[in-house]
Design the sequence.
């Protein structure tokens, strides 16, 4: 399983990387945890591999002005250890602790996972649930893409071939927001059969703000729009958790694959959602 | 039988750290991919993307033009060698369809190797392989057992798709038994295809120095491999030397070199250059011979008192296109009822050819006999309304029943399945569990207990290839011991266990013994790792060879001191004469005399301290066991958690309990993988779809519980009292777990005997059970 | 196809090489460096046998290009034991607990555990056990490996053998 031949460049500035990408038939190498197997299987045969690991500007977690900015080549374990992230978005840190294995998180990047768009991955869903936006640059300019608009299919995003994801911006969620996270996997590090991530803020006993997304339940991360709409403004007590779960499932589009059937995913997803929501609301009521 | 040596069981029975570990822990093992020779070239294969069809043309021009490519070969280039693909049982000419190393005229499965590239490195070889242009005329493949029964012939030169068949339809006597039975229980077990997945894939390096051929091979016995290669190429056996120092797991896959290894050797012979092929993981999961795809329908008859009166089994095994040897797995039938008193058994066993990768061996190839039997006994217990343990008690062989000749003509003696069960039940409080189970159900938690009992026929010596093992021992002039054995370890630890046996028998320090088993040019023929035999047969040979040396040493020492050989003892490398302390000599001093000073030896004695013994064990040595496991099935997700697992074993005298338990644990882990996680799948065109470890899921650390062991020791009748244990975990593991899951799911009236029992399947059973209950 | 000069430090020794872009780090370590203790089990980053330590972190060397390791400091399993042969505590723990059979997955397991136990803080048993999820062993059923992990974390072993 050896890759087909390719050229390699390791620019140390974003500008130089964009120059390479503008030439066409180039693939970005970040953590390599996904690209290297694709190269080895010859499922990916780029002419040029652009290694962005040496670009200092692409590292670091910061709080520019509200929210957090995670530069794209931040290693997943760096995010896991980041006090900034733990304070600002603990649910994101919980999500990343479930990504792959310790060893893959030493190289795997936040940007890589977000821009890959693996339907059963945690970070794309976290971006969608929490209202993140993806900062992308090309020689033609730069843009910020809301995560909700970013994913169009399995491993398929709106990124152009000449664009580089430089950072992911997460908005602030209040410190007392309720964390929602659950994934059903055969073993740690496997693709989720069913996954759910979100955040919910209560004010005066009412649900003030909520963002929830599924992973492993469709061709992309799926925002649970109907469930969010039904929850918004509701009093935290007396919520029909099963009913909301039905609405949450209604937005999903799971498929049959080697690991689980669509029916399984819907059945278990419904249960997971109801249980998670119920526990979250009880916690807040306590 | 000789009782374990009384003077000193100083090492046998001890959990000694392994000799192998020093090199393996520090990265200084020597696996086949570590072998590097000057000028060595590398092989990659161009393989068929279709499961069945005719080869219309092969265009190699582009492949040949890649810089660094030294040769490209197809079947025509290898035709001059007239290769017969012989398998482990050494039958020539090999039975079944003609197997060519490279596909000739037709392809019979996806991945069938059509051309081979030999290049400066593997990267270039793969570049060139991608440029081999083959035109096929595709045909609809036959993929399943069902499809094989009615579909087109997989092999034009084989009469039908039946690879091998044995047995008979139900005869009138058996029909009568069923008709008169108080209880008749039927069921079908379906087992998925398994990829053996040793962590080290297959691999070979061919080298030739003048006329001497050396083959470095990842194998399960260098001697078997050397003999097979000689037969394959019609060369004198002594002309091929096979070396296999460290092998990263075999599990039955590597008992013979197969098409790619043989093609690589042929390429080396053509090029007169060292040539290496290392299988990559994609190849390992799709084009090494895989295992276990089978179906088994059983009908059992019981009398009113729940005693077995008869059984009929209808069994089918997917042989794929090119099995190592055509196989209807009649061993399943031979061994199935061994632990139980079953008066009458009939069967039909059929192996079927299909357009898929061929059948290979895997740890306990007959293992479905225990899965099917133990699962069906639980089904029977429920149907009859009797406790599953009690059902077993009424039918198991007790000591008093033995020797017992089964309906298949096997004579069972010193087997202890009932004793193992009793011992198990001392460790597992079943009534307490049942109480816990009832309480848990009220909380919506589903616990289950599964029990399985079996007898494993180890060290079976009925086939010529398995008939014996040989030990060549010599005490060097330095007093240290060199032992060259026909055993072979791919993780078995024979360099340690055999040293323990020899150290005890000779009376020398464990550290003074070096075991060699990696080179077919040293020592004599043996089958290496196969059939759970090495402790029994290798141990027996080591003991007998050591006894020859002990006898000689005693006679020399006695002669030197005018004493009686019976008064001479060897302890810790010191040769002592009872009652005469001053004449104690080191073994080294005796050896120096034996090798250098013939005038001091007894008259007429051959010089030196070298002995060989080729040991032939009893026809079969039975290991018995009873296992129990407790699971919790999550009714919301269908996930299974194993909460406890107890193994009650009788494997005779244990040489190294840590190594014994390691073998059991490794087999159990593989059994867990088979029940819960692993499955090789194909699409409708015969393309394998589980092509990486992301899809083919091997058990990880979280999937395997901490096993508890309790051992009985009934010494066997073989030399040393050992019994085999290598395959057992993989045989008894699956039924233990399947029964536990069925027990957990009992409230849902659900039982699934189609492996693997994935969360999707289990949840479906639960939901169906809930609907039925509601209806 | 581009070629690149690289300088790496492996087990304290400087190595210079010239590599094709596509050459993996594990192939470089094994074939150019001669460190055949780095084992190749799957070439797609699941089995963990190829794990080495790069700049202090346990990584799968089959998922790095050799050229990416330019300037890095790498430790392979051959670099752990002391010059006089004294085993590293991870190696010793695995030996004491019979944590290996065929030895093929072993170097990877050793390097993950060595990386995690390298610092001053003793990692928790949960951290070490979690790291085992990145390793597949086909021989041992993980029994001895888990016992070694408990030993390294200073945790008691479960119930005695019967």
Sequence:
């Amino acid at each position: 399983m050896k890759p087909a031949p390719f050229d390699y460049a390791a620019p140390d500035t974003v500008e130089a990387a964009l120059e390479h990408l503008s030439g066409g038939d180039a693939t970005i190498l970040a953590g390599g945890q996904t690209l290297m197997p694709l190269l080895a299987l010859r499922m990916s045969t780029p002419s040029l591999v652009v290694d962005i690991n040496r670009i200092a500007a692409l590292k670091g977690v910061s709080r520019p002005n509200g929210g957090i900015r995670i530069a794209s080549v931040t290693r997943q374990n760096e995010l896991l250890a980041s006090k900034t992230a733990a304070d600002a978005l603990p649910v994101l840190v919980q999500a990343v602790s479930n990504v792959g294995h310790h060893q893959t998180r030493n190289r795997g990047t936040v940007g890589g996972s977000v821009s890959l768009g693996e339907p059963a991955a945690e970070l794309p869903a976290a971006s969608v649930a929490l209202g993140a936006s993806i900062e992308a640059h090309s020689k033609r300019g730069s843009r910020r893409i809301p995560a909700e608009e970013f994913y169009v299919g399995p491993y398929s995003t709106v990124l152009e071939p000449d664009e580089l994801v430089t950072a992911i911006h997460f908005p602030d969620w209040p410190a007392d927001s309720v964390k929602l996270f659950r994934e059903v996997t055969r073993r740690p590090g496997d693709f989720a059969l069913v996954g759910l991530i979100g955040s919910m803020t209560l004010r005066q006993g009412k649900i003030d703000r909520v963002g929830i997304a599924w992973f492993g339940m469709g061709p992309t991360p799926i925002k649970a729009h109907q469930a969010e709409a039904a929850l918004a403004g509701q009093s935290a007590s007396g919520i029909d958790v099963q009913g909301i779960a039905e609405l949450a499932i209604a937005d999903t589009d799971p498929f049959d694959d080697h690991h689980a059937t669509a029916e399984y995913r819907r059945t278990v997803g419904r249960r997971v959602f109801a249980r998670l929501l119920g526990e979250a609301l009880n916690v807040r009521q306590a | 039988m000789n009782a374990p040596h009384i003077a000193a069981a100083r090492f046998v029975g001890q959990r000694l750290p392994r000799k192998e570990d020093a090199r393996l822990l520090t990265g200084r093992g020597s696996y086949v991919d570590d072998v590097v020779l000057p000028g060595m070239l590398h092989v990659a294969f161009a393989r068929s993307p279709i499961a069945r069809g005719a080869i219309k043309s092969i265009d190699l021009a582009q492949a040949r033009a890649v810089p660094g490519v030294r040769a490209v070969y197809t079947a025509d280039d290898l035709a001059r060698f007239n290769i017969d693909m012989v398998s482990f049982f050494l039958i020539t000419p090999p039975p079944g369809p003609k197997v060519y190393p490279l596909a000739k005229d037709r392809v019979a499965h996806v991945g069938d190797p059509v051309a081979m590239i030999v290049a400066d490195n593997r990267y270039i070889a793969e570049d060139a392989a991608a440029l081999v242009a083959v035109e096929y005329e595709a045909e609809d493949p036959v993929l399943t057992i069902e499809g094989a029964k009615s579909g087109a012939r997989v092999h034009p030169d084989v009469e039908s798709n039946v690879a091998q068949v044995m047995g008979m339809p139900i005869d009138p006597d058996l029909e009568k038994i069923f008709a008169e039975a108080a209880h008749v229980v039927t069921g079908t077990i379906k087992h998925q295809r398994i990829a053996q997945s040793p962590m080290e894939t297959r691999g070979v390096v061919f080298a030739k120095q003048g006329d001497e051929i050396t083959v470095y091979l990842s194998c399960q016995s260098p001697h078997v491999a050397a003999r097979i290669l000689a037969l394959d190429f019609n060369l004198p056996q002594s002309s091929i030397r096979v070396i296999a120092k460290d092998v990263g797991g075999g599990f039955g896959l590597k008992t013979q070199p197969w098409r790619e290894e043989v093609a690589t050797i042929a390429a080396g012979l053509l090029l007169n250059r060292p040539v290496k092929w290392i299988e990559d993981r994609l190849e390992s999961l799709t084009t090494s011979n895989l295992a276990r795809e089978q179906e088994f329908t059983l009908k059992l008859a019981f009398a009113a008192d729940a005693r077995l009166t008869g059984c009929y089994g209808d069994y089918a095994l997917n042989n794929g296109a090119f099995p190592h040897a055509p196989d209807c797995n009649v061993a399943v039938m031979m061994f199935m009822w061994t632990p139980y008193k079953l008066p009458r058994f009939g069967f039909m066993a059929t192996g079927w050819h299909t357009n898929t990768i061929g059948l290979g061996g895997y740890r306990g190839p007959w293992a479905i006999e225990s899965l099917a039997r133990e699962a069906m006994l639980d089904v029977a217990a429920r149907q009859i309304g009797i406790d599953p343990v009690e059902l077993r008690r009424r039918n198991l062989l007790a000591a008093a029943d033995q020797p017992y000749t089964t309906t298949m003509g096997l004579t069972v003696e010193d087997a202890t399945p009932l004793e193992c069960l009793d011992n198990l039940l001392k460790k597992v409080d079943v009534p307490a569990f049942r109480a816990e189970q009832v309480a848990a159900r009220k909380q919506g938690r589903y616990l289950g207990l599964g029990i399985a009992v079996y007898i494993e026929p180890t060290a079976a010596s009925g086939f010529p290839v398995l008939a014996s093992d040989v030990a060549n021992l010599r005490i060097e002039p330095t007093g240290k011991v060199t032992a060259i054995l026909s055993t072979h370890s791919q993780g078995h630890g024979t360099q340690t266990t055999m040293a323990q046996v020899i150290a005890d028998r000779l009376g020398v320090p464990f550290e003074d013994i070096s075991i060699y088993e990696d080179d077919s040019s040293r020592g004599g023929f043996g089958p290496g790792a196969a059939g759970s035999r090495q402790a029994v047969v290798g141990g027996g040979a080591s003991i007998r060879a050591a006894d020859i040396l002990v006898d000689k040493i005693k006679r020399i020492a006695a002669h030197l001191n005018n004493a009686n050989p019976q008064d001479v003892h060897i302890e810790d490398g010191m040769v002592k004469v009872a009652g005469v302390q001053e004449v104690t000599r080191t073994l080294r001093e005796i050896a120096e005399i034996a090798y250098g000073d013939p005038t001091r030896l007894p008259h007429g004695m051959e010089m030196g301290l070298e002995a060989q013994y080729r040991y032939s064990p009893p026809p079969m040595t039975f290991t018995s066991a009873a296992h129990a496991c407790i699971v919790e099935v999550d009714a919301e997700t269908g996930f299974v958690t194993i909460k406890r697992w107890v193994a009650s074993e009788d494997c005779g005298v244990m040489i190294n309990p840590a190594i014994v338990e390691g073998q059991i644990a490794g087999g159990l882990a593989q059994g867990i993988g088979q029940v819960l996680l692993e499955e090789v799948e194909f699409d409708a065109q015969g393309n394998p779809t589980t092509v990486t470890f992301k899809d083919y899921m091997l058990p990880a650390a979280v999937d395997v519980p901490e096993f508890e062991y309790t051992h009985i020791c009934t010494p066997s009748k073989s030399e040393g009292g050992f019994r085999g244990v290598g395959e057992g975990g993989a045989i008894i593991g699956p039924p233990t777990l399947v029964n536990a899951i069925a027990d957990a799911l009992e409230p849902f009236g659900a039982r699934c005997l189609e492996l693997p029992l994935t969360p999707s399947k289990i949840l479906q059973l639960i939901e169906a059970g809930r609907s039925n209950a509601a209806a | 196809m581009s070629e690149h000069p690289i300088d790496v430090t492996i087990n304290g020794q400087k190595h210079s090489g010239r590599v094709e872009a596509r050459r993996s780090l594990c192939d470089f370590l094994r074939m150019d460096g001669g460190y055949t203790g780095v084992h190749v089990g799957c070439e797609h980053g699941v089995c963990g046998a190829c794990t080495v330590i790069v700049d202090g972190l346990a990584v799968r060397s089959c998922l790095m290009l050799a050229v990416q390791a330019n300037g890095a400091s790498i430790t392979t399993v051959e670099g752990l034991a002391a010059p006089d042969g004294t085993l590293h505590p991870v190696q010793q723990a695995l030996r004491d607990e019979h944590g290996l059979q065929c030895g093929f997955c072993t170097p990877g397991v050793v390097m993950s555990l060595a990386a995690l136990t390298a610092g001053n803080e003793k990692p928790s048993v949960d951290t070490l056990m979690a790291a085992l999820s990145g390793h597949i062993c086909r021989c041992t059923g993980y029994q001895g490996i888990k016992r070694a992990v408990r030993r390294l974390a200073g945790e008691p072993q479960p119930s005695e053998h019967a």
Notes: Chain A has a mean pLDDT of 96. The longest strand of chain A covers residues 194-203. The first helix of chain A runs from residue 14 to 22. Chain A has three domains: 7-51, 59-170, 178-281.
